[in-house]
Amino acid sequence: MSALPVERPHGAPAPQEPVLEIRNLSVDYGYDEPTHVLRQVSLTLHRGEVLGLAGESGCGKSTLAYAATRLLPPPGLITGGQVLFTDRDGTQRDVLALSDADLRASRWQDLAIVFQGAMNSLNPVHRIGRQIADAITAHRPGATKKEALEKAAELLDLVGINPDRARDFPHQLSGGMRQRVMIAMALALDPQVLIMDEPTTALDVVMQRQIVEQIADLRERLGFSVVFITHDVSLLIEIADRIAIMYAGEIVEDAAAQDVYRRPRHPYADGLLHSFPPLRGPRRELGGIPGSPPDMARLPSGCPFRDRCAHAFDACAALQPELGPSAVAGDDPRRRVACHLHTPELVERAGFTPQPLPPSLSRT
Amino acid sequence: MAAELISTENAPVAGEATAPSGGKRRFLWMRNAKALTGLGILAFFVVIAVIGPWIAPYDPDERSSDLLKPPSWEHWMGTTHLGQDVMSQVILGTRSVLLIAFVAGFLATFVGIVVGITAGYVGGFGDEGLSALSNVFLVIPQLPLIIIIAGMLPSAGGLTVAVVIAITGWAWGARVLRAQTLSLRKRDFVEAARANGEKTWRLILAEILPNLTAMIAAGFVGTVSFAVLSQITLSFIGITPTDTWNWGTVLYWAQAQLALQRGAWWWYMFPGLCIALVGISLTLINFGIDEFVNPRLRSTGLNARLLRRRGIRPRIGFTPVVHEAKEDRA
Amino acid sequence: MRFFVRRFVFYVITFWAAMTINFFIPRIMPGDPVSALIAANQGKISPDAIDALKALFGLDENTTLWQQYVAYWTHLFHFDLGISFSGREPVVDILARSLPWTIGLVGIATIISFTIGTLAGVAIGWRRGTRADVLLPISTFFSTVPYFWLALVVIAFFAVRLKWFPASGSYDRSMVPNLSWEFVGSALYYGTLPALTIIVTSVSGWILGMRNMMVTVSSDDYVTVAQAKGLSERSVMFGYAARNAILPQLSSFALSLGFIVGGTLVMETVFSYQGIGYQLLKATSAKDYPLMQGCFLVITLAVLFANVIADLAYGVLDPRTRQEG
After folding, report:
1. Which of A50, A68, B295, C283 has its CA 20 to 30 A from that of A217?
2. Residues in B 308-327 with any Cβ partner in A closer than 8 A
3. Residue A197, phi then psi, degrees to nearest 5
């Protein structure tokens, strides 16, 4: 088995068919008095794109990814929703509806996760070559151990690690190398979707850059779609096609990366983007967002961001915002924002006075 | 909470548990059913130990003509081959068992604390030396050593036994405490206190010791358990003088008089049950402490049944899916 | 490599320490043990034996402590452990006769117990909240009863009442020890009850320990990763979880060897099983000091040796030890 590159002419826009669709996913944490950490969240990953999932710690971005693959540890509980995976030939299946046996059989082939390459993600008592190979032997009964180990060596080479190190143990590798091993492991069965959970967070800046470039290079050659989870929005602006920003268990903005960067439509997104200085370009005033994220067990009514929002008004305490189109004319119709400033009719129907969009949220 | 998926902490250091902070946490262990049951049983025996001489129906040495009789109204636990009342022997035996066990426990724990914390805090050669010392005592088989020492003493009664047990049993606690002290020492709050110029002994007393209470408690309970067993074993083999009554002595006589072959089951059943009950109570207390320190160990117990009914089977790697979502978007 | 060297040095030191303790114990005992012994044996001890006793207790006026210490070690390396008072034969002979029995009994019983306990612990720890959890309190109960009490109960029930097994002895007395099948069979028959008692009381410790380690290890990331890869349940449970959980278990196994041996000692007495423990306790009652010391020496050596093996196994199983940082 060798890696087959997917031919895509440079400059052509990625086809817009969805490969992974999360619909109304609800997740609780705790069985007796559960905290509703995700409430009917919807997100779509299209084939060939890089979708960035950003937000502060505790906002639920990792929870979303793990729940979508049923890898949430106890006491996590999925209470509703669907996760539809569309295969290359068009067949669809709901990951959450699969039986345990079917799920186990299908894992890693359609969708793989690149875990944080921390010391704990690799089994300390097995050699790394074996850890890559066992995914192969588990799903390809025809492959012999020798073949699987050869493939493992190939994958290590692919991510820039000397294949001779396949006989090393995890504690003999540096942090950056471990992260690459995790990537190699994820690619073992040529998946269509790669979910990357904070792949660069534990690394220094130089290593971060290398890993990110490596991922971009691999994407060019193998053509998978990526969900890139991180709290580092600036990183996403560079590498993602689209960015979804989460806050307190909900997606608050979902748009193309450049749109989010230059023309944010949600107050939180706007605040986030003004929280870090750009390396190039004119100096920008560093903003920040006052306050701190809410306790998920005690969410305020209505919009969870209203306590920290500079533009909150009365409707925000009463109505929960839903993801909808942006109210700014000329915006990409596929953009989504969850903010009452963009839904004046809904606000009016509920009996409140709609507020106009502030200029910071209506740049063009 | 949900985002703490990736950060895991293997070694459960006391105090890292995701439990309510400060004062509330101190009382969590009290609400633990296992620990409470254990404490209850132990308390019962302590009471017996204290009021023993007043409630024992007979003088344990007093002979009677009811030789080797099974339990009856006059003798609730039957009689020995000399007509002595087994129950009185058991009741009076409680005091010596518990007293010696607790004394041994205190001594061993104290030595363990001193050695363990010093080794963990000081580091370097002091640590190496003390660790080597405790490792040596750990590896040398304890009961044979106790037997040798006690056997060579002219008379090995009461507190001597306690001291001997403490000498052989302190090493385990020392080791555990050393490991914990080592990891605590690297923590920020200790470094901060040191940078502030806080005196070493005050640091240890104020910062390190409070975090070790759970471990110390567990160690103490474990040592008491070990002491009970050792003591009874010593009496059973006849090394400690057979004139003071404790449960081991009762068993010694039972075995010497071939109680088994004579079918006098009451002679060895009752003392044995008492030993087992004390042992169970101590183990339960230890479980309670264990679960408090490492919340992952808390058994699902009653909840397991409820979860099964809802169709939820919590497993690593297969998050349960139920369709109970009641949240509706406004 | 460094790991093994360190452990080896440690064991040498421990051996030296144990033997030194063995040397000093009779010398620091209060009172005059020699006269007490003579009185106890009503003057039936030969002058040679009295001299040997004096030497043992350091009451020999002609030598210094250091000379006695050197003499002690010299004797040790010549395998000369003195003459037993009660048996009137060289201590070494008595020990050589009894040791195989103890090792056989303890070895087999402990291995069986560890295996069963670990496997059960893996199963219970992996699937939490199942009905198998009821095993935990049951086995806990058995772990708290003293070995010898359970032995008494077992004898009373299986030997006296049901007469399925013999109540005492290590083999049929009418036979002479040899390596025939008949003899081996008899040895196994007589050893069943003692072995059973050891297994029942010690298995719960292993179950509990392994269960706790499985629970702790299961929450480590690499187990989730293994599940994410879609590996079979067995692969994850054994290859990832159990394989890591067993490491601390091995360490605690090594440390508990001393304790296991202790429990077996008493059991041998109850069953009149002629191993080292039986000899030690008989010697203690008879105040046969050379034999006592000899038994302690052998027991300690055996425990140290078992520890070495356990350490070797740990070094093999945990690759992180091969590279001491």
Report:
1. A68
2. 312, 314-325, 327
3. -100, 105
Mutation target among B133, B142, B148 for the C interface, most CBs of C within 10 A? B148
For residue B233, give the nearest of C130, C148, C280 by CB distance.
C148
| Sign of the C-alpha dihedral computed for residues B281, B283, B285 and B291 taken in this order | negative
Q: How is A98-145 classified by DSSP, letter by letter?
A: S-HHHHHHHTTTSEEEE---SGGGS-TTS-HHHHHHHHHHHH-TTS-H
Task: Record the pTM.
Answer: 0.80
- The tokens for A63 are 């929870």
Q: Which residues lie closer than 8 Å to B238 by C-beta, 6 or more apart? A: B252, C285
Query: What is the three-class DSSP state of A79?
Result: strand
Q: Which residues of B touch A72 (CB under 8 A)?
A: 5, 319
Alpha-carbon distance B308 to C128, whole Å? 12
**pLDDT for A253:** 92
Please give the Cα distance from A133 to A145 (Å, whole number): 8
- Residues C229, A185: C-beta atoms closer than 8 Å: yes
- At a CB cut-off of 8 Å and minimum separation 6, what does A345 contact? A354
A225 neighbors A191 (Cβ within 8 angstroms)? no
Please answer yes or no on whether B307 and A31 come within 8 Å at the CB atom.
Answer: yes
Residue A51 β-bridge partners: A227, A242
Contacts of C225 in chain A (CB under 8 A): 113, 115, 121-123, 185
Query: Which chain C residues contact residue B318 at CB under 8 A?
Result: 227
- The torsion angles phi and psi of A337, rounded to 5 degrees, stand at -135, 145
Q: Amino acid identity, residue B184?
A: L
Contacts of A116 in chain B (CB under 8 A): 6
Contact pairs from chain A to chain C, CB under 8 Å: 77
Q: What does DSSP say about strands A242-247 and A50-54: parallel, antiparallel, or unpaired? A: parallel
Which residues are within 8 A (CB) of C261 and not within 5 positions of it... i.e. 6 or more apart?
B141, B143, B144, C106, C277, C299, C302, C303
User: Which pLDDT value is given to residue A2?
Assistant: 33
Nearest to A70 among B312, B314, B318 (CB): B318
C119, with CB counted inside 10 A (0-12, 13-18, 19+), is middle
The beta-carbon neighbor of B319 closest among A58, A72, A198 is: A72
pLDDT < 70: residue spans in chain B: 1-31, 154-157, 242-243, 294-305, 324-330
The alpha carbon of residue C180 is apart from the nearest alpha carbon of chain B, in Å, by 32
CA distance A347 to A324: 13
Question: What per-residue confidence (pLDDT) applies to B55?
Answer: 78
Hey, is the C-beta of A228 within 8 angstroms of any chain B C-beta?
no
User: Taking CB atoms and an 8 Å cutoff, what residues of chain B touch A78?
Assistant: 319-322
The alpha carbon dihedral of C160, C165, C170, C175 has a sign of positive
Nearest CA in chain C to A106: C230
B6 part of contact set with chain C, CB < 8 Å: yes
> CB distance B261–C18 less than 8 Å?
no
Structure token digits, residue A324: 């909808």
> Is residue A178 less than 8 Å (CB to CB) from chain C?
no
Pairwise CB contact (< 8 Å): C129 & B299: yes
Please give the angle made by the CA atoms of C133, C136 and C140, to the nearest 5 degrees.
Answer: 170
Residue B2: exposed, middle, or buried by beta-carbon count in 10 A (0-12, 13-18, 19+)? buried
CB C95 within 8 A of CB C279: yes
Q: Which helix (H) or strand (E) holds A54?
A: strand A50-54
Q: Do B319 and A63 touch (CB under 8 A)?
A: no
Q: Which residues of chain A have pLDDT under 70?
A: 1-15, 117, 278-279, 284-285
Phi/psi region, residue C230 (left: phi>0; alpha: psi -120 to 50; beta: rest), is left
Res C300: pLDDT: 84
Token pair, residue B197, equals 């110029």
